[in-house]
Write a structure and sequence with these properties.
The structure holds 2 protein chains of 2 kinds. Chain A contains 10 helices and 13 strands. By secondary structure, chain A is an alpha/beta fold. Chain B is of the alpha/beta class. The chains are: A alpha/beta, B alpha/beta.
Amino acid sequence: MENGESLRLKLLIVDDEPGMREGAARCLRNLSFKETDFPEKITFDIYMAETGQAALKEISENSPDIVLLDYKLPDMNGLEVLQNCDSSGFLTIVITAFASLDVAITATRKGAFDFLAKPFSPDELREAVKKAAKNIFMSRKVRQLQEEKSRIRFEFVSVLAHELKSPLAAIEGYLHLIDERVKGDELASYDSMIKRSVDRIASMRKLINDILDLTRLESGKKKRLIEKIDPGETALYVYEGLALKAQERKIKFELLYPEKFAFGADRGEMETLFSNLLSNAVKYNREGGEIKLKIEKKGDFMEISCSDTGIGISREDQKRLFGEFVRIKNEHTRNIEGSGLGLSILKKLASLYGGEIKVSSEYGKGSIFIVTLKEQAAAVQNASAA
Amino acid sequence: MSEKKIKVLIAEDDADLMDQLDIYLGGRGYEVVKAYTQKDAEKIISEKEFDAAVLDLMMENPDSGFVLSHRIKKAFPKKPVIIVTSVTKETGFYFDKEHDKNNWIKADAVIQKELRFEQLEKELKKLLGR
């Protein structure tokens, strides 16, 4: 929509009486309005026609958004005008002196949006036009949102297809080499190829699980069970699953949890959150590095900060980090598997909890991710409340 | 075999494909010189340490392969260059050598992904005159 700032609409006034046309034009020319429920300012460009033929010409040449159409014209009536053009592109307000119910019904059937009986006051005219303008504004907004939604969905699906295809291509390539016995008949020669294939399958499964997490969060369909949890305990529980990988690379883990507290949250969501934060800290760390996870209560909020001594993220890359399927490509990340969805899941979770996620990082030194979450009120669906 | 091994510069950011090409071509008597980024490839090109090049089109830049092939052909017009790409499948943007009348793709061949190793080797052999 026009710069998102103001909306200009074309308004065609069709009436055979010059006084009527001028009067209407005068009363609408400086009409511009702004209302609380839509941010844009709406103004009008006014065109005029005195006969049905002239109206049809204006309609085809200027494609108006709103047509103020007198019912009784010298060469035809208002309904004939509507029948002789494609009236789907504009809203019609039919004006008539013969305020018969009959005309009103027929006009509405023929697609008229509103109906104004002569004589009417300038205010009545302005109100009718405003109503039509709001209607146009809203339907354009809806269309815009739908287009945006389908564009995003399309983009998501094409990136997803790519992300699923690349592990398949890799696995297929290795199988092909194994099939050809490129390394002779010794089975052990193929160990690294088999291991890589298994790793790629595992990362594909992770990708699929991440997508399920993400779509569940987005659809809001997942049942949330808000209960008091101990965040430190949850973090440790999640870390247990990652500890082996961390130990393999001699990465030290430290939980800073100065004061034990209970926090209202969904346990599954908290596990997803810690799992994404900590697995990134392990994956992108250096051999022999450190992870520090600090959990603190700050009023209604909980602040979780997770720092690593890893490869860091350049300032440039930090800007796009939280987008879907964003993976930072450089010589350090080449051999690290990831779906590119972890941080967008974290971001969605943070906003679900009325909080945010921030990163500060120095390339080559490490990163700190700070998540703030607002405590959720225990759900009413609690059985004990019934 | 007293013949000196032919060095093939492979510019490819997919670690698995690189690994596979290394295994496949290595098994067929070639020596693979690996470049995982356009930057690495540029360094290898300036050091002249290769006899033929296989370049992925999209690496850290969407036109990495084009830029590299241009650079190679300018300095070493006779060294064979093959561009490998999945850009057609992903964007619908199609190009090949036959339709490139103005000869702006400075490569000897363009191969679409998913890459078949045999096809690549056949193309390499042909261009190297073996």
